């Protein structure tokens, strides 16, 4: 094993791409993604406003929208221009203030204010939908108060008449609605999983033996796989630990539980990831195809975590896809520890959910043994290349 570790270290030292994947690329990726969301909340999102009424009340509602820090209203002459601007993503939403809006409000009618938003941008669309309704409701409430007072209503009963029931929404684990604490952790976990996959598959691809246009495995393939797992697991765990320390110690994001428990969950996630990569690698025995397939499989990991979209509302195929994502299993432990402060026994119970990945072992053994018998002597990739040259 000592010789195999030295061999793996030498292979890593002479591979600039592999060195980059385990050193500065993860650090740059983590810091860059954090910087993108460091503002905490989106601000000044462009919204198209079509003022067909052009009255004092419609202009007051437009000013009410502008007073909201999230909304940046932009005037458009007609609805067609606003719709075209939405299609070209120049604006994320549109508000149409209808004709005779002032007259209908003052005469007790119920005019319809048309609000549309681009739901393809999930978080932006949801945020604008709530903020637009909130801003317009505040403006319309002021108009309602004035109308009731002019009609002789008692000032003490005006608020009760307009809003008999007041709702208050409080985010339990994200009181400031900060997107750093909400989005950045699962995004970084998805990135960490993708980089770990690339590190492991690149290392495995170095062991492919090319002979007569076919790839084989060396006879010591099992020892080589064990060496790679023992060699790269601590390295990638260091990057996983850096993510936790950066978020919950340096940035000071709230964490209710112990981060050590999450390190154990990260180790279980890595073991499941190695099994997934091994079954793909041994089954395909082609470096380019293995990397492409693994990338296509794990690239959408963030979308399947259930953070921005409810898992139960996903199509059945997406739910199955989610089950084979190690990061989807890990994020349950992450949320439980960070938000609910669960203890180690509960985390161990969640880790036991990885047992399904053990069913991949027979396939790995079958594929590896099938391609292990090289027709010639036990050659390495470099030996074959020298012989061909």
Strands, helices and their partners?
Blueprint: H1 2-13, H2 16-22, H3 24-36, E1 45-51, H4 56-66, E2 71-75, H5 79-87, E3 93-97, H6 101-106, E4 114-117, H7 122-150, H8 155-162, H9 179-205, E5 209-211, E6 214-216, H10 221-250, H11 259-284, H12 287-298, H13 316-323, H14 326-340, H15 344-351, H16 361-370, H17 381-388
Parallel strand pairs: 1-2, 1-3
Antiparallel strand pairs: 3-4, 5-6
Please summarize the sheet with the most strands: 4 strands, mixed
Q: Roughly what is the average pLDDT, rounded to an integer?
A: 83
Question: Largest sheet, order of strands side by side?
Answer: 2-1-3-4
Number of DSSP E strands: 6
Specify the structural class.
alpha/beta
Global geometry: elongated
Question: Could you list the spans in which at least 5 consecutive residues all have pLDDT below 50?
Answer: 377-389
Order of helices and strands: HHHEHEHEHEHHHEEHHHHHHHH
What's the end-to-end separation, in Å? 31 Å
| Helix residue percentage | 55-70%
Question: What is the overall number of helices?
Answer: 17
Which strand-content bin applies to the residues? 5-15%
The gyration radius over C-alpha positions equals 29 Å
Description:
With 389 residues, this protein is an alpha/beta fold. Helix content is 61%, strand content 7%. The chain has 17 helices and six strands. The protein has helices at residues 2-13, 16-22, 24-36, 56-66, 79-87, 101-106, 122-150, 155-162, 179-205, 221-250, 259-284, 287-298, 316-323, 326-340, 344-351, 361-370, 381-388, and strands at residues 45-51, 71-75, 93-97, 114-117, 209-211, 214-216. A four-stranded mixed sheet has the order 2-1-3-4, sandwiched between helices. Strands 5-6 form a two-stranded antiparallel sheet. The protein is elongated. 26% of the residues are buried.
């Amino acid at each position: 094993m000592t010789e195999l570790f030295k061999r793996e270290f030498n292979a890593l030292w002479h591979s600039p791409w592999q060195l980059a994947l385990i050193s500065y690329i993860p650090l740059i990726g983590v810091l860059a993604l954090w910087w993108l969301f460091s503002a905490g909340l989106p601000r000044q999102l462009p919204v198209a406003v079509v003022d067909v009424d052009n009255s004092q009340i419609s202009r007051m509602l437009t000013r009410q929208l502008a007073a909201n820090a999230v909304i940046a209203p932009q005037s458009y002459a007609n609805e067609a221009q606003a719709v075209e601007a939405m299609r070209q993503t120049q604006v994320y939403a549109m508000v149409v203030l209808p004709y005779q809006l002032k007259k209908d409000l003052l005469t007790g009618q119920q005019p319809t204010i048309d609000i549309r938003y681009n739901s393809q941008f999930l978080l932006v669309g949801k945020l604008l939908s709530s903020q637009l309704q909130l801003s317009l409701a505040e403006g319309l409430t002021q108009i309602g108060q004035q109308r009731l007072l002019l009609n002789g209503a008692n000032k003490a009963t005006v608020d009760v008449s307009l809003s008999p029931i007041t709702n208050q929404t409080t985010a339990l684990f994200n009181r400031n609605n900060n997107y750093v604490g909400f989005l950045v952790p699962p995004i970084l976990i998805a990135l960490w999983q993708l980089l770990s996959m690339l590190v492991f598959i690149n290392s495995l691809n170095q062991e492919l033996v090319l002979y007569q246009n076919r790839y084989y495995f060396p006879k010591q393939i099992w020892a080589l796989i064990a060496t790679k797992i023992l060699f790269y697991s601590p390295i990638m765990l260091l990057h996983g630990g850096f993510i936790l320390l950066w978020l919950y110690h340096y940035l000071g994001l709230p964490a209710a539980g112990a981060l050590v428990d999450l390190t154990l969950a990260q180790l279980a996630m890595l073991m499941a990831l190695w099994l997934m990569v091994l079954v793909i690698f041994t089954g395909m025995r082609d470096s380019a195809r293995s990397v492409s397939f693994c990338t296509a499989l794990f690239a959408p990991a963030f979308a399947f975590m259930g953070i921005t979209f409810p898992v139960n509302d996903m199509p059945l195929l997406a739910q199955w896809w989610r089950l084979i994502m190690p990061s989807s299993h890990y994020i349950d432990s992450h949320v439980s520890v960070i938000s609910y402060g669960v203890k180690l026994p509960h985390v161990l119970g969640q880790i036991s959910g990885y047992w399904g990945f053990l069913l991949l072992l027979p396939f790995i053994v079958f594929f590896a043994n099938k391609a292990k018998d090289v027709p010639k002597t036990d050659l390495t990739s470099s030996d074959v290349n020298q012989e061909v040259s």
